[in-house]
Every structure is written in C-alpha cells, then in structure tokens.
C-alpha cells in the first residue's frame, strides 16, 4: 500500500514538558537532500491537560498520534501514516519557540518551523475513532510488542517431501505475460541520487519495462495565485522513467479537481486538460492514467463521488487525445482500490453504466492485491496466495451484467504479501525477504492463471518498508544500506522471471498446493529453448521439498549436446544478507550429452521459500 508506509517516532528533546503550551500549533517539517521537497506537517493541541496531535503528509489525510512517552527531557510521540510506522527526532532550539531541529528515520535531517494558524497548510486533528485497514493492522502489530532490533534465526526445513514436476515441452498453453515488465517507482523526491544508475542497471539486466507506474500529484503543476504552470518538480523523475519503460502510468491524486485549485469543476477541468496536454507533449511515453490511489482507504470520497472525479479525468483525456492524436493515446482507469473491494467496484461499474455521456471511457479496471476483508477479519494473501484466483471471473460477471465489455483488462497496480506495516518477523527482514520473493511470485502465478490480468510489481525502492525493495536499500533491521547495482531476493526473483521464454507450457505436479502453499512452477519455451521456474512458497511453514524435474518432448531442434543453466535464490544464494558482494542472481552453466529420446531429468532440493530456474538451450 503506497503513500509513505512509515512507522514514525518523534522525539522532542525538551528542557521540560509540563503544562506549557509551547508545543501547540502547526509545525512544518522541512527536509533536506531526498526530502527537500517534502511537505510534512505535525499539529499539536491540548485537550485539557492531554496533548494530542497528528502527522500529515502533503498528499494524504492526517494520521492520529496514538501513543506518547515522556521524560524530563524528551517527548516520544508515536503515530502511523497510511498504516505504517517511522521515526523523527526533534530537538528544541533553546530560546526559540518557533524552530526545532529534527532527524527523520534516524538519518534524514529536518527543520521544524512553526506556522501561523491561518496557514493554508493547517488541518484538523482527526477523530480517534476513524481509521482504515492499515490502522487496524498497525494495532494488531503493536499488540505483539516485539523489539525493533530483534534477531531471528534463519528458517530451514524441518522435513522434506518429494515432488515430481513434469513439463510437456510440446504443449503450449499461450503467450506468457511478462510480469517482470510491469513495475512501480516510488515518489519523485526519493532516491534521486540513485535513480539514473538504477534505470541504467535495470535496462542492462533486461528489465526494461512495458508499463511503469509513477506517482504524480496533479495539483503541483498549476499555481492558481499566479495562473502559471510548472513541470520542473517532476521533470527528472518522468525523464528517467521514460528511459526505463515503453509506457508510463501516472497515478494522479486529483487534489486539484477536488479543491486545491479553489476553482469550479468546469475551470479545474480546463486546467487539467492543459496539464495533460503539456505532459503528453513533453513525455510521449505517458500513456495511462490511474485516477486517485486507494480511495476506499483514504475515505475522503464516497464511491459515487469518486466516479464524479473520474468523469472529469476521462473527459479531459478525450479532449487531449482529440487535440493531439498521439501515436499512443492516453488511456484511463480506476477505481484503484486498496483491495478487490466489490462494494467500490460495483458502484464504480454502476456509475459507468448509468453515465449517458457518448464518449465515456474505461480502458482498465485497477485495484491492489494484498488482502481481502469479506467480513470483519482480514485475509492476507501471504497466508493464502490462491485467494486471488477467482477475482477476474467475479469481475467479468459484474461487467457482463452491466453490458460492459470483458475485453477491458485488470491492472493490479500494487501487490505483495506485506501491505503497509505487515511482517512475519518483526524488526528483522532476513527471512521476510525470501518470503516476499516467493510470495509475490505465488500471487503472480494465480493472476497469470486468470485471463486479462496484469500484476504490477511493487517496488524498485520503497520509501520506508525494506521488505518491498527490489534493489538493496536497507539492512535486515531497516537501516540505510543503499547500493545501485545489487538486487534483493525479490529483485532477483524478478530477474529470474525475465529468463523464462515466450510461450507458456503445460506443467503437472505430484503434489497439491494447500492454502496456496507448496511447490509452484511455470514452464515456457521459444525458438531458443525451454525454461522452468520452480519455487517452494511456505510463508512461515518449514516444509522443504526434494524435486524431481522431468521435461518431456524436448524440441527436435535440440542437438546431442544441451546447455543447462540453473539459478537459485535462498538463504545463502542470490541473497545480499548472506553475501553482499555476490548477491545478484548467478546462473551456473554446464553442457550435458542428451540421452536417447527427448527427455531431460534432474533432481534438487528447495528449502522453505526458495526459488530456482532451469534453462535448457541447444548447444
């Protein structure tokens, strides 16, 4: 789940904390370096003798402070933004009630500046009874009360089962969707120093994207006071991404449309048309618009109100496409919900059906893939990735019943096993890194078994949650450890997928998946050979597998000698937490003499959450 998934800890070094009102009011937390353009705000007020407060990021709703700890010299304030924890240490400047020094996440320098009450950035501290899915997740995690620096033992198999995987290399079941080419970048102001190198590295590794999603706050482009447009804030971000991917998707937050510009809806649509025209002209790769992010969680709009914003956007898109007639016209979709939320999706489809606008537009339906909540309890995909397997069938029934074309694809524009602050081992990501790699591949597997479903990986580098990183950005405890050409296990698993061939093959297994756990496999072929990816998703379970792989009906083009390439991701292989210098996926290679017949056999073992690939090519 996007938007600053943080655990935030604020430490104020005060001379004394008592009945003083010195800390009431609004504070702007101004950043340096990667956070130079951040708009973070903290607000305090007293309710009787109780100090209450909230944190607000520029594009999100305020998040309530839920816990305070004080000593003679410090006040520690805990809160969560978009459901996830961070830390900021603020130090009072002696004799100056309007400024404080600060450190974000223990490593980024900030300045806290008091703002006037009539500041345009003022906000209301939310009611403590409000809160969305991440807030509930956070409360559950807090109840576990674990140390943030606790060590965890490396998970190893406690037992092994046998599994036979059989591939029929003559039985194609269609084109393989290249999930490694659908991906996300984090916000424009984060990891800017590494971004050029990251783009070059991904392109060199064969991971150039088909569609990458960027986060664009449309209100930033237009200043209603000066009637001026300015795109410089995002220029480098979009230019870098344009080198990384064929097409770009902009998630646009709609804040200008919903009030930030302070003009009528009709006027805001004209502004939006100008913005989209300029962006499409400047950046031709810009081809997709996702309207808002997780509006079901954000709760500032009802589903019906959301469609009103969506309509303003699609009408603007139609105007821009008509005016520019671009080679790749702008496409638009939503409702970009935090889950496969049928209440929201049904209302969205209802409103689309009722919309009598002649050129109404819906190019894709988007939502996120982390969990479902059919009742009061969350069902996380980390516990059963197969929970996603019927989503497309359900969606197509809803579309068909409203006369909406089922050719419209599903874009799962964020997905993974750790939404917001979720974890399996609190405070240490060593094992969770492998769980993330195998878990995301397992969710992808079920989406790939659904027609017209396109899961987007999340994310190259996450702003706070290291479990989601594809490139090495943090150590196992979350401390900065930024490298520009080193993959995490999750990043290596994406690289592993890129080594699959073009067409998917039929695979059979001697073992059945149980609640989405067990041995998974995807096999493929093209004119260059045959490849199969096999992984053992166990989540927190500890079952290992002894694998016998049989590939039958090898292509007749295979000569007597066969080149066999294998790669492995586990606790000791392709894992920077074991060997940083040699952490990128290694493909071991050997030449074998093909025996009589067109069959290849091999055996190997997989520890819990280990992944491997076998590639056969004619020598």
Detailed description of the structure:
The chain is of the alpha/beta class and about 625 residues long. The strands form 5 sheets. Strands 1-6-5-4-3-2-9-8-7 form a 9-stranded mixed β-barrel. Strands 28-27-30-25-24-23-10-26-29 form a 9-stranded mixed β-sheet, with helices on one face. Strand 23 (about 505-510) and strand 24 (about 520-525) form a beta hairpin. Helix 2 (about 190-205) packs parallel to helix 3 and helix 7 (about 305-325) crosses helix 8 (about 340-355). The radius of gyration is 25 Å and the shape is globular. The chain starts with 6 loop residues before the first strand and ends with a strand.
Number of strands: 30
Percent of residues in helices: 10-25%
Q: Could you tell me the radius of gyration in angstroms?
A: 25 Å
SS-based class: alpha/beta
Ends: how far apart? Answer: 45 Å
Percent in strands: 25-35%
Query: How many strands, which pairing sense, and closed or not: the largest β-sheet?
Result: 9 strands, mixed, barrel
List low-pLDDT spans.
2-20
**Rough shape?**
globular
Task: Give the helix tally.
Answer: 11
- Average pLDDT confidence is 88
Strand ordering within the main sheet:
1-6-5-4-3-2-9-8-7
